[in-house]
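Usage

Read records sequentially. Each one opens with the input sequence:
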Amino acid sequence: MLNLETILYEKSDAVATIKLNRPHVLNAASRKLWLDFRRALREAAKDTEVKAIIITGEGRAFSAGADLKESQSRTLDEYRDYLVEGQEISRELYRMEKPTIAAVNGYALGSGCEIAVCCDIRIAAESAKFGFPEARVASGVGSGVLQLLPLLLGMGKAKELIFTAEYIDGDEAARIGLVNMVVPDDQLMHKAQEIAAKMAANSALSISLMKAILNRAHEASMEAIMDWEVEMMMSAIQTQERVKALEDFTARKR
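and closes with the structure output:
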């Protein structure tokens, strides 16, 4: 079992759960938390038994954002290194071949909301609050969210959320498309695990190939995407997994 200071890592069947674990500061993102988070992501990525990943927070929050107390003690060079390191870890999350689900409990603010946006699916508890307060403290949004958020919400709504620095609840987040669904607090992890299990039951190769194209779809023409789709399907159908799936299908039809 992975032993980390600021992350709880669990695996059940084919699903890994990564839990941000600094509840005394609402899981504020310190450098240590980011580094532990990367270790957990890499553990899940290399584990062939893991087919889906859930990310959530311990206690009353998903993550309240960057640890501003720690930020105040950095030199400019240290701050740049921290930011670059954080961007690389966000890339690893976004490019993860396995499907990721953010199970958002309580506050998901700033870098906490960035983590959620970088996931494939977002499920919010009724108590969840989302927002990007960076403009209040003369900072900026990172993790590729300045591209990803307009894709989710449209440019106008993305600018409104970022420029006002206002918080929205789970129902509003669902209404504008920031989250896939809202559930009662006590059902959050059950719903996340239910969806993760459905994903895990499908072909990991198929999902990883399709995810790679979906993540680049906004950058390419329809012609390019259709060419990529052909190559993606050719890669999939030549595997033993495909052969077995067809054999199983045939057997069920008899």
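Summary fields computed downstream for this record:
- Residues 204-253 form one domain.
- The first helix runs from residue 31 to 46.
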